[in-house]
Amino acid sequence: MLERSDARSRPCWLRFPFQGRTIGVSKVRAGASPAAEPRWLVPFVFACLFFLCVLPLFSLAKAGFAGLVSGRSIGVLTEPATFAAIRNTLLTATGGMVVSVVIGALFAFSVALTDVRGKLTLSFAFMLPMMIPPQVTALAWVEMTGPASPLLKTLGIAPPLGSPQPLYSLAGISLLLGVQHAPLVFLALKAGLSASPRDGVEAARLAGATPFRVFRDIVAPLSLPGLIAGAAIAFVSGVGNFGIPAILGIPAGIEVLPTLIYTRLASFGAGTFGEIALLSSLIALIAAAGLILQQRALSGRDYRIIGISGANAAFSLGRFRVVVELALVAILFLVLVAPLSALVASSLVPAYGVPLNWQTVSLRAYEEILFRQAMTLKALGNSMFLATGAALGLLAVSVPAAYLMTRRKGWLADTLGILIEIPYALPGIVLAVAFILAFAAPLPLLNVSLYGTIWIILIAYFSSFLAVSLKPVMSAFLQMDPSLEEAARLSGAGFLQRMRDVILPLVAPAAGAAIILVFLIAANELTVSALLWSAGTQTLGVAIFNLDDSGSSDLAAALSVLVVAMVVVLMAALEALANYLPEGVLPWRN
User: Residue 197 pairs with which residues in a beta bridge?
Assistant: First the structure.
């Protein structure tokens, strides 16, 4: 899940060419008049959201209810496999949440409140595990551990042959879920720590309070909402994660709800749709329960900050600064550098378990992936098409939606926000099932079925990533002065002309960030496409999973290395554009 950050803003530096017409500016600042909008705008936005959000979720609820009423699918709820999957889902999601809180909180407190050096570099590196696809994370850790690890064999520290792979367990799944989602806790907690009262901290220090007491009495209580929110997001993300339990759990016979849905859909039967609808509803209920617990934990807590916020470097580490910096670097080495190094080593040897040296090093896997494997080349082309189509196509919805949400207040903006956020908040496996149920039958009038085609994946991406595309564009609209558009309207410019000459130039940097962010996430997506792909429509995420499942670990490792390289390049491109983007769009700079 990129991170669900708060609305961001950036000072507007462009000047509007229409000078001297300022009539009605005070009214526009309170919200644009509906007369300034074309009549088709509201129906267009709501029609898009109905097709992308309401229809799939209604189909999911309808199928689940029908399965309960008819009794054909209710038996799945009482099967031992379902109870085991529920238990494993709760155990791994809870364990992953604990690991995420420990690692994410350590980094958030260190980066936000201490005087450690290289904060931007540390934040950038710490965000990488979240941007890397979960199946790649799992594959990298598998290549790093166990008796057949090429990296451990090269270093001469591999366990004896026949030793079990420690990651093929509930503990292993929990550990990797924690590593994958620790940046979510980092983002949620760091945002709260940035609002800590700097003058209150300084006053306490001047009054003689020790750093520990300042942290205990001021910083810790104010950071609790962010910590609880981050923990809840990590739990919900763990419940819906498919890539890590699939890579680690399926070989060990450990099923969670997402992998159970995957196996049920693979063995298609008469009551499959009803069964997977009920199982998806269980995932949604568990995720909702986690969010409800978050709300109850925060209820009755009302922290209002008075004074100057922004407690950056509130604590000077003194001679311990080097120790803390080394500890942070060591954690990054363990969770990022070492697994990726093992992944690279595995991609350079002819077979899994062969040590890497000058006699065994080979680029054969990369040659096979890039020039000979038709499946991987097709997957690469599909992922590029889907990511580009989603990134560019979503602007046609996110720009009008952001315009309405900032110009209109009240129920309209609230309804749009809810419709956009629900698919993003749902686990990807649930959203995929919803789209299967919505589009399995041929479309009315057209008599064309989207199921089994690449178009159903693209539409599902539209639904899943609309909130990601909206955030940067919304930030730009919030910062833009409505009087600029009003002056153009009073000068006779129509809506499309105002959009072309006034609005789009101002939101262009944010739109560019939205395109790159959506492309970055969609190009590596697995959870949604794992259920929606068919022959000829596999994506990069599906290709990596299938290669590893078929025993071609060297090819899977090579393709994963290429995916990681693409992620790093795109993140670096975003970092290079940081000065031109709304503040807070880049999560590692939040």
Answer: 309
Which residue in this structure is represented by tokens 């990601």?
Answer: 468
Cα-only R_g, the chain: 25
CA distance 197 to 309: 4
Whether residue 148 contacts residue 251, with contact meaning beta carbons closer than 8 Å, is answered with no
Measure the CA–CA gap between 62 and 51, rounded to whole angstroms: 16
Contacts of 79 (CB under 8 A, 6+ apart): none
pLDDT per residue as tens digits for the range 434-478: 898 888 877 777 777 888 889 999 999 999 898 888 888 887 787
Nearest to 376 by CA among 543, 537, 526: 543
User: What is the DSSP annotation of 525-547?
Assistant: --HHHHHH--TT---HHHHHHHH
Can you tell me the distance from the alpha carbon of 444 to that of 431, in angstroms, rounded to the nearest whole number?
22
User: How long, in residues, is the chain?
Assistant: 590
Q: pLDDT under 70 in the chain at which residues? A: 1-36, 71-73, 192, 194-202, 204-206, 208-210, 268-271, 298-314, 582-585, 590
Read off φ and ψ for residue 454, nearest 5 degrees. -75, -20
User: 351: Cβ–Cβ under 8 A, 6 or more apart, which residues?
Assistant: 554
- For 242-275, how does the pLDDT look when each residue is reduced to its tens digit (9 = 90+)? 889 989 998 888 999 888 888 887 776 656 777 8
Contact 380, 540 (CB under 8 A): yes
User: 540-549 and 134-144 are packed helices; what angle lies between their axes, rounded to 10 degrees?
Assistant: 30
